[in-house]
From TrEMBL:
It comes from the Eukaryota. The lineage of its organism: Eukaryota, Viridiplantae, Streptophyta, Embryophyta, Tracheophyta. Keywords: Signal. This is Galactose oxidase. CDD domains: E_set_GO_C. InterPro entries: Gal_Oxase/kelch_b-propeller, Gal_Oxidase_central_sf, Glyoxal_oxidase_N, GO-like_E_set, Ig-like_fold, Ig_E-set. Residues 1-392 form the Glyoxal oxidase N-terminal domain. SUPFAM superfamilies: E set domains, Galactose oxidase, central domain. Coiled coil: none annotated. Pfam families: Glyoxal_oxid_N, GO-like_E_set. Residues 412-506 form the Galactose oxidase-like Early set domain.
Length: 513
């Protein structure tokens, strides 16, 4: 899933699972679907991507040109979505989607230039210069960049991916975790190991300590990760990574024999800036893998979806993790996790969760079966969408909630780095001393990875009232593209831990003089 700045959500699914509920006029290769018996049973004659309107609760059918199964993606500064790689012929293809107002006719288009290497189970990250780096993939120990200057453009070897590959257990380093640090370098994590990587020089700058414990965190072991919110109070200089969940050692081989080993219950936090690097470990309330980690406007982390035993893959897990966890990174060790109300819907392999503008979390998917399977399966294919409603959306907090948020950027395209902008909002009472402004970069989320997810706590230099209940805050944009790559962000006003509905803002490079 991907959230667009038009408040729609793009959903993608693999084309090999079978027929969806909507037919296409033309299949993936362009030939016409005629309604014959063969065509009616051909999955490529059916829709496998839709645009979902949050406000209208409607969908619009989209047309993908190849199988995006286990691909990666990012959002460019102009709001276009780039999807890279996939299964079979799609492993070198690039799809583009130009977000538009709901109801318009924009659709997926296939890039003329292809990737230089096959990218199946690879990861993507937007870079400060508005390029996208695509890292890894099954059998691909390399990285490359989008946009492509040519199909035969440079592809760079990355020995780290070979070193973390356990070939006898499906690698354990697929879908590597990739985070952009504030110095412009990349944090790369695969299996149990991590490095700080200078992609401009193709050089490992630093090797971090191995995360403690036995077991793996990368696909098919599949834990999840976030960068904890970056804060203007330290000048956005501190970057702390958090990784939670994963599978026990040997889980993949055991699952193939019908035994599902208990997953990992540990999380690790490590500051990747500075010179003192040590994983600080703590335990979740229970074991979890294939979990999604979503940054909320409050700065808390929602851990949702997944299973308690086994690993990722077709029918490789058991014991759905029905209870979400809420993690408060500011509390003392041992008091950071809260167990939330249980769902009744299993969200296992191939499920996703994303934050949407009203502060809720859209949850979708779950298909641990090789085909769409609705009966005679331990965990059938799941078609229902859900909204996870955090406590802060409760009516009892309405008197603390900022309303009618608007952003004044003087008619410009966006706010240049380091510049100030005006945020106007309505509040029933005087803002508390805990008033905060958060900016959130929406991710491309798949297989428990929220690629490019990022949250910043911005500086407010002045807050004044100009009418009864109305407040004007002067807020400062992030200092650079290293801290916040150019593009669209959700801005929330958070008063005493209660966020407003978010509004979109675009951070841009200063105009050249």
């Amino acid at each position: 899933m991907v959230l667009t700045h038009w408040n729609t959500v793009i959903l993608l699914d693999r084309s090999g699972s079978g027929r969806s509920g909507y037919q296409l006029r033309h299949r993936l290769n362009g030939t016409r679907c005629k309604g014959t018996r063969d065509d009616l049973s051909d999955p490529t004659c059916y829709v496998h991507s839709v645009e979902y309107s949050i406000s209208n609760n409607t969908i619009r059918r989209l047309n993908l040109m190849s199988d995006t199964f286990s691909s990666s993606g990012s959002i460019l500064s102009d709001g276009r979505i780039i999807e890279a790689g996939g299964f079979g012929d799609a492993s070198t293809r690039i799809h583009y989607f130009g977000p538009c107002k709901s109801g318009d006719s924009c659709d997926w288009t296939l890039g003329k230039k292809h990737l230089s290497a096959k990218r199946w189970y690879a990861s993507s990250q937007i870079l400060p210069d508005d390029r996208i780096i695509v890292v890894g993939g099954r059998g691909s120990f390399t990285y490359e960049f989008i946009p492509k200057l040519s199909t035969n453009g440079n592809v760079f070897h990355l020995s780290f991916l070979q070193q973390t590959n356990y070939g006898n257990e499906d690698g354990k380093n697929l879908y590597p975790i990739v985070h952009l640090s504030v110095d412009g370098k990349l944090f790369l994590f695969a299996n149990r190991d991590s490095i700080l990587f200078n992609y401009k020089q193709n050089r490992v700058v630093k090797k971090f300590p191995r995360i403690p414990g036995i077991g793996s965190r990368s696909y098919p072991s599949t834990g999840s990760s976030v960068i904890l919110p970056l804060d203007q109070k330290d000048g956005f200089r501190k970057v702390e990574v958090m990784i939670c969940g994963g599978a026990a050692s040997g889980a993949n081989a055991a699952a193939r024999q019908g035994t599902f080993l208990t997953g990992l219950n540990s999380c690790g936090r490590m500051v990747i800036t500075g010179n003192n690097h040590k994983w600080k470990m703590e335990n979740m309330p229970g074991p979890r893998l294939m979990n999604d980690m979503v940054l909320l406007p409050t700065g808390h982390v929602l851990i949702i979806n997944g299973a308690k035993r086994g690993c990722a893959g077709w029918r490789n897990a058991a014991g759905p993790a029905f209870e979400p966890y809420l993690y408060n990174p500011k509390k003392t060790l041992g008091r950071r996790f809260t167990v939330l109300k249980s769902t009744k819907i299993a969200r296992m392999f191939h499920s996703s969760a994303i934050l949407v503008p009203d502060g809720s979390v859209l949850v979708a998917g779950s298909n641990p079966n090789n085909q769409y399977t609705f009966r005679n399966a331990s965990h059938p294919t799941e078609l229902r969408l859900q909204a996870f409603i955090p406590d802060y959306m409760g009516k009892e907090y309405n008197h603390q909630r900022p309303y009618n948020v608007s952003i004044d950027i003087n008619g410009k395209e966006g706010v240049a780095y380091g510049n100030k902008f005006l945020v106007r909002f309505l509040l029933e009472s005087k803002p508390s001393k805990y008033l905060a402004f958060s900016a959130y970069a929406p991710p491309f989320t798949t297989h428990s990875l929220s690629m490019n997810q990022r949250m910043l706590k911005l500086r407010s230099t002045r807050i004044i009232s100009d009418a009864k209940g109305w407040w004007n805050a002067t807020v400062e944009a992030p200092p650079s593209a290293n801290v916040a790559p150019s593009g669209f962000y959700l801005l929330s006003v958070v008063n005493e831990g209660i966020p407003s509905i978010s509004e979109w803002i675009k951070f841009i490079q200063p105009a050249s003089t």
